[in-house]
Amino acid sequence: MYKSINEPGRRLSDELIARLGRIDTATLSDAMGRHGAMSHRMRPLDVTVKLAGSALTVKAPTGDNLMVHKALQFGKPGDVLVVDTGGTYDATVIGRNMALFAHRIGFVGAVIDGSIRDRSGILAIPFPVFCIGIVPRSAVKHSVGSVNVPIVCAGVTVSPGDAIIGDEDGVVVVPFEIAEQVADAAERRLEMEAQQAIDVTEDDLPLEILYGSTWVDERMNPGFEEPFQISGNRPE
User: Fold this and answer.
1) Is the residue at 232 inside a domain?
2) What is the count of structural domains for the chain?
């Protein structure tokens, strides 16, 4: 997988990315059968912003961000920089000036399974960044990795062109192949949850709208199925 540098290929439509971007990450994950959510360690620098775009992936050698600089040369408007740092958490792979450049050429944000620096500078751009940590030490720039290949970021497989949605709760990856199905299922689930919120305020118990008043006991029996969900697994 190393030393495989590829031009961007498939992309979801702007309209589909916009649909997914209007849905919160919790609902998207629920709609995918609880799949797609990155580790709890992946947190936003700014909880007030949202991220929605197409994955441009980087697999970086440990402690090195040369491939991140290479990936920036491929960026197109609407891309999200998604980086597997190889477990590098004590050296940063992106700071203010790289974020400034990414923002200028049209990247809509970054998701880093690693650390960043220059927090206040990045927040001032503004440029949505999700990361594992913040440290002052920079990475070296020597080794060749890969660009636009499948990676694992915060526990979730990300392929080039997948939809990346981030908000105050974290980051969800919506596989390219099922993105429209997920949008449909999540929109139906939002409608259900809006009605559920009304019902709860009128003294109904949570989930009665879906399953009725005896659902807890019935849930303990085999064969119980949940609506408004599709498989979040990537098709073979």
Assistant:
1) no
2) 2
User: Please, which residues bridge with residue 3 across strands?
Assistant: none
Count of residues in the chain: 236
- Per-block mean pLDDT, blocks of 10 residues, the chain (236 long): 79 96 96 95 96 97 92 94 94 94 97 96 95 94 92 97 98 97 94 74 60 67 63 64
d(CA 161, CA 214): 43
Name residues whose C-beta falls within 8 Å of residue 187's C-beta, 6 or more positions apart in sequence: 19, 23
Q: What is the largest CA-CA distance in the chain?
A: 62
Pairwise CA distance, residues 195 & 228, whole Å: 14
Is residue 146 domain-shared with residue 211, that is, in the same domain? no
In this structure, which amino acid lies at residue 236?
E
Is residue 102 located within the same domain as residue 202?
A: no
- For residue 49, the enclosing domain spans 4-177
